[in-house]
Automatic annotation (TrEMBL):
Protein name: Glycosyl transferase
TM stretches of this protein: 228-249, 261-286
Biological classification of the source: Bacteria, Bacillati, Actinomycetota, Actinomycetes, Kitasatosporales
Gene Ontology CC terms: plasma membrane
Keywords: Membrane, Transferase, Transmembrane, Transmembrane helix
InterPro entries tied to this protein: Glyco_trans_2-like (IPR001173), Glycosyltransferase_2 (IPR050256), Nucleotide-diphossugar_trans (IPR029044)
Length: 316
């Protein structure tokens, strides 16, 4: 069989060399044919230059693509999956946070017949605030979203040819991989590993990016947030009706006194805020429709060292 390893890289000049050494040692010990597929996601440092050199040094086993600009990790993974020709494909980060030593275990599980082998990381070494936020987020999101998202489960996984073909066939422009992996289903197995620190360089996830990613996760998969908006509106209307009844009762019993200025202001401002949030929510969905209708490609390739060699998939 043939194994493809897809590695999205964005400004990874510092670590890419070390990553390449480590992964080759591991892959060399496996009894399978392999290929490494680097996707340079429009890096602004010397990443592309390094990848080019690596591809020349290890000619038949290394391929690369380079994007015309930064299109994001989702696009880079998609490009890698399209390019990969193996019977199984492993997605890995370039910063050595995904230990190459786990590949052997993944392959063993693949040989047992699983289509998705997921490595689930612990939150060791994460900032405490980030892990608490993540936990709360996953608890909330699983109530809202149709597909199951699990804390610690990321993109580090092995996918069988069947699963890769399924993923690549999904045409949507807004790709939220965590959800897509879960949506395609197939026979899935998960194992745990201890999180490792980044080898060098820096993470591209600032707090704002994480919040945006979180919102994406909530609305990429269904229209349930809109349903929640309807229920919120109905509950508020019921509250308002009860309050009106109470006021009328009080007026009948005690005559009309007219305090309540603070209540009024609070209600108006509160409802105004809520309406803005709901409008924003609707806007998000419309925005997505807008992007989907443009049918733009997910990425543009400016450089590559050739297309996939033809490879006939073999049975496991
Ligand atoms: N990455 C990418 N495009 C981007 C951002 C990140 O291809 O726009 C790659 C990056 O080079 C790395 C992987 O995605 O190989 C994970 O990125 P990072 O380590 O910043 O994320 P974290 O591990 O902190 O979640
Ligand atoms: Mg990382």
């Amino acid at each position: 069989m043939k194994l493809s390893v897809v590695v999205p890289c964005y400004d990874e000049e510092e670590v890419i060399g070390h990553f390449d050494e480590e992964i080759r040692v591991v892959l060399g010990q496996l009894a399978v044919e392999y290929e490494l597929c680097y996707v340079d996601d429009g890096s602004t440092d010397g990443t592309l230059h390094r990848i080019r050199t690596l591809a020349q040094q290890h000619r038949p086993t290394t391929r690369y693509l380079s994007f015309s600009r930064n299109f994001g990790k989702e696009a880079a993974m998609l490009a890698g999956l399209k390019e990969a020709s193996g019977d199984a494909v492993i997605l890995m980060d370039a910063d050595l946070q995904h230990p190459p030593q786990l590949i052997e275990k993944m392959l063993d599980l693949y040989q047992l017949g699983h289509d998705q082998v997921i490595a689930k990381r612990s939150r060791d070494g994460d900032k405490p605030l980030r892990s608490v936020c993540s936990r709360l987020y996953y608890r909330a999101v699983n109530k809202w979203v149709d597909v199951e998202l699990t804390d610690g489960v990321g993109d580090f996984r092995l996918l069988s040819r069947t699963a890769v073909d399924a993923l690549v066939s999904l045409p949507e422009y807004n790709r939220f991989s965590k959800g897509l992996f879960s949506w395609i289903g197939f026979d899935t197995v998960t194992f745990d590993y201890r999180n490792a620190r980044r080898e060098g360089g820096r993470t591209k996830w600032c707090f704002g990016a994480l919040v945006n990613y979180g919102i994406d996760g909530m609305i990429s998969f269904n229209s349930r947030p809109l349903r929640v908006a309807i229920y919120t509106g109905l509950s508020l209307a019921a509250l308002a009706a009860a309050y009106a009844l109470w006021i009328v009762g009080a007026a009948v019993a005690g005559g009309i006194t007219a305090p309540g200025y603070v209540t009024l202001v609070a209600i108006i401002v509160g409802l105004g805020g809520l309406q803005m949030v709901m409008l924003g929510l609707i806007g998000e969905y419309i925005g997505r429709i807008y992007y989907e209708t443009k049918r733009r490609p997910h990425f543009l390739v400016k450089e590559t060292n050739g297309t996939a060699p033809t490879h006939t998939p073999t049975a496991r």
